[in-house]
Amino acid sequence: MNFSLGYLATGRFRWVVYATIFSLVITIIFWGQGYVKDHMVERYLVYKNGEKLGAVSNPEVINIWLEQKQKELSTKNPQVILVADAGGLTYSYEKAFRAKIDNSSVIHRLENGLLLKATGVEIQIDGKPVGTVKDTDTAQGILDQIKSKYTPERKVLALSLNESQKAGKPMVETNDFLQKVSMVKVNTNPENITTPEKVASMLESGNAQPVTYTVQAGDCVSCIAKKFNISSDVIYQNNSWIENDFIKIGEQLDLTVLQPMLSVKTVETRTDALEIPLGVIYEKDDAMRAGTSEIVAEGKNGLKKVVYRVTKINGRLVEEVPIDETLVEAPIDKIVKQGTKVVKGNGTGSFAWPIYGAKLTSEFGKRWGKLHAGTDTVSSNRTIMSADHGKVIFAGEKSGYGNCIMIDHQNGYTTLYAHLSKIEVTDGQLIEKGEKIGVMGSTGDSTGVHLHFEIQKDGQQENPLKYLSK
Ligand SMILES: [Zn+2]
């Protein structure tokens, strides 16, 4: 039987054949499409700086790995903030038939090329970098610590009198660095991050080289200061054990001059309570004798509150200006009454020599078993003067005394002048201190020209030399 295709194609069954082939082809197409569909893979190609590293299922895989890496780093290095840098990664998405994904191989390649970078905060003084620390908090902490050294206790001043009387509790107004201080965030190598202590020391000492000196014979604090061309203050500050400038041979002195890079300017207000001294008012009183006085009112010092604005640089006073003054209590003047009344003949209570250039020949005291009640003097000048103001109560001859004058000074004292050759006053006469009353002589019981002079106080004999300057 000739069973050719031509026959089939042309035979009576041809429609059946066509339909069978057609349905077969359709079946194969649909089946194939399902197979392909089932074997298509979604993936992300990973490129580092343009170089293809491989394919991952999702960029999230890389991100999670990086985050994990970051956590590990910060646990291992708490002093430094490290950043894991995998490089510039790009991803390209694709969907391909039976494509390969290998997350761990991509991560492995990234791990090998991982860069560790530190982040830090650089402290700059007037634009000049001083050091880099871990973070802003650390930098701020160093600056605050330096500032706080020059910040007195922040206390609010109580304005009551009792509080203000307590001396100077300063109140800080401002507290600033004189230099421009900036903090700049930087990325750097981990080894460039320094400790806060190192940066603080740099800021405070300016990297000064330590200088020590051994005290030698003949040294003194100011001599050493001069020798090294430094201030004595530096020596006292660095060597606080020195007391009263006392240094011994062989002792070690620290002469390091710090050059702080930062200066703290503090402006404070301080309130002081100051005494206002009282004044004294003198009132003349003509009912009181001249030379006497009497306190009428004691008076009282006043009180004022003065507010000063005090400027300090690194704790050293540079300016102090009074900015406010309040009177708390006005002073009360002391009042003194002074007598002006002059009474002629009233003694002052102090005595002058009754002769010029007196030469003592016999003193007051026991003489030949008897009291010599006065002082004997001689002088080439024979003028006799009253020793104080007074009133003549006797002027004449007296047994043993010869020509004699007695003067009552009307203050309890009486004086006596004896052996005069001449009396020049009369009984009852008012006499001034230093006024001539007679002439020296040798009348009465006398062996030569001299003055016998007596002082009585309330009727009792006194040694005249007690009252006369020698
Ligand atoms: Zn005598």
TrEMBL record:
Residue ranges of every copy of the LysM domain listed in the record: 211-255
UniProt cross-references to InterPro entries, sorted A to Z: Cell_wall_metabolism_enzyme, Dup_hybrid_motif, G5_dom, LysM, LysM_dom_sf, M23ase_b-sheet_dom
Name of protein: Peptidoglycan DD-metalloendopeptidase family protein
Record bears the keyword Signal: yes
This protein's UniProt keywords: Membrane, Signal, Transmembrane, Transmembrane helix
Stored Gene3D superfamilies: Glucose Permease (Domain IIA) (2.70.70.10), LysM domain (3.10.350.10), Resuscitation-promoting factor rpfb (2.20.230.10)
Stretches that traverse the bilayer: 15-36
Domain of life: Bacteria
The organism of origin for this protein: Paenibacillus agricola
CDD domains: LysM (cd00118), M23_peptidase (cd12797)
Domain G5: 261-342
